[in-house]
TrEMBL record:
Cofactor(s) listed: Mg(2+); Mn(2+)
Binding residues for NAD(+): 35-39, 84-85, 116, 139, 176, 293, 317
GO cellular component: cytosol
Functional description taken from the UniProt entry: DNA ligase that catalyzes the formation of phosphodiester linkages between 5'-phosphoryl and 3'-hydroxyl groups in double-stranded DNA using NAD as a coenzyme and as the energy source for the reaction. It is essential for DNA replication and repair of damaged DNA.
Annotated protein name in UniProt: DNA ligase
Species assigned in the record: Methylophaga aminisulfidivorans MP
Amino acid sequence: MTTSIDITQRAAELRELLNHYSYQYYVLDNPEVPDAEYDRLFRELQAIESEYPQLLSADSPTQRVGGQALDKFDEVQHAIPMLSLDNVFDQQELSAFDKRVRDWLNTDKAQTYAAEPKLDGLAISIRYENGILVQAATRGDGTTGEDVTANVRTINSVPLKLQGEHIPAVVEIRGEIFMPKAGFEKLNQSQLANNKKPFVNPRNAAAGSLRQLDSKITASRPLEIYFYGIGVIEGMPRPNSHSEAMTLIAGWGCRISPELKVLEGLEACQRYIDDLALRRDNLEYDIDGVVFKVDDTALQERLGFVSRAPRWAIAYKFPAQEEMTTVEDIEIQVGRTGALTPVARLKPVFVGGVTVSNATLHNEDEIRRKDVRIGDTVIVRRAGDVIPEVVKAIISKRPDDAREFVMPTACPICGSDVEREEGEAVSRCSGGLFCAAQRKEAIKHFASRKALDIDGLGDKLVEQLVDAGHIKDVADLFLLDVDTIASLERMGQKSAENLVNALNAAKATRFQRFLYALGIREVGEATARALALHYSSLEELMQASSESLMEIEDVGPVVAHHIETFFQQSHNREVIERLLSVGIHWPTEEKKQTNTALSGKTIVLTGTLQTLSRSEAKEKLLALGAKVAGSVSKKTDYVVAGADAGSKLTKAESLGIEVVDEATLQQWLIQE
């Protein structure tokens, strides 16, 4: 098929534009046009190439989507071997390397080094001829690698065509392909959602993605690249220094590490290591050390190579973030909210810069998915301040006497029943009022403003009282005396007297507040109010079955189960009896008809009310069977607008929801 000059020119123009926009977006992180404009131009080029296949070229952005799957990878012989680097692990070994360099060069002069992070990825060599990408190969054994050209083409930050004016006839640019942390997490979420095995770490994910025989799979993976050097170069002189080479590479449109620096002397190198180590965990990608290279190319040639490594470069390795060890036992930790977390007790191992003897296993499902057993050899990972975790079990090393973990049915702290809600991964202790692991949080909630509202009993004071052994559960609060409280740090006689008075005052409460204060899972203010209106006494509620509880509007099977389970625990009942014995009481709640005009209506309060507070208005509306919401939605029936009403009023008007004033609210309350 013949093609017009106009179509040929338009295809070339589109390729140039799209490659430029990709460079701006993926290399410079500075998008020049909206995504919609890029997509429009991309589709236009696709349409032209589809109609005129002869216009398809190797540098076309349409070639990033992946092609037909391969049967195997072809071998590629590296014209210049891709050598590995020798490693050093501390300042003394780095100093010895620097001394060797200066001795070989017969100089006492401080050396100039180029420094950059050692990425934890996969080395790659990409060959360009007349600026066009023609081949990409893995390191392999350093002499022979695999041809992964089709896969590398799919990586957006790899230029299909070099830019700039001074481009050599042939150049082989080397770099590291890696997977950013965010992309790795997203990929593993997708793997789990599709019942596929997740990747162990970003490096494995990058390697597995690059070595797919189907390049369409590689195209779907979030791979990135930083280039770090030049191999073969023809048609122009080799740069005089590594830093000059990196400037050239960047000028050709290739991404180089933003952390690249040229340093004078050993002390500057150590400062670079210290700085990068501090920022390591905040980088968007994994690194496992720092690479130092003698910057001057002529000096590199003088220094030469030894065995399979250059004398002019070294890799300073950070402490490993992954190591192997043995699971000696699996124990349960109970958190402040009652969550039971399995923890692996490990044979101590040095990982991530510290000695690790235990690591989280998250929950029962994770143990099953990873198939971790007591006695297994496992890979443990620790990055920075992140809690160490067991990444995987090495099944091939499993001993015959390895034991499967069984989640306990009773809390190891207090003996209360352990419950796990359907659809949730977390198992929880149901002894909220009694369990020592949940003690502080239970007391803080009990004393909070919407519960018993104990004035002067703040979070820090609760922690002091618990830590000093003065209170073990909420009932102990009402046995505190002035002398005990005054003995605490920053608590004087007057403050202690005020707190005792506040505790005595809090004994007189309301049934709904008391129920909310108990901290039953899923029982908020509205549910507590509904329970108080439905049951004539606490004893009746404590004897209620799930079926009875579900007769109450808005109490479904999950909430009913939590309430029934809470009151079934003997420990919780004992604490409640103690609370009543120390004088907690409330008046009998007046039963309200829930079949009022407001029953089931959703009302939002906004602005300042003149005749009553918003909390008082809420209480009265709830007593009439209404639902009081905190935000306006299509499900809202009325918005009560007081003075200086703001965005909620605006949203109500935009949704066409009926807005009433405070006078109407008062009429509702009086009429009912």
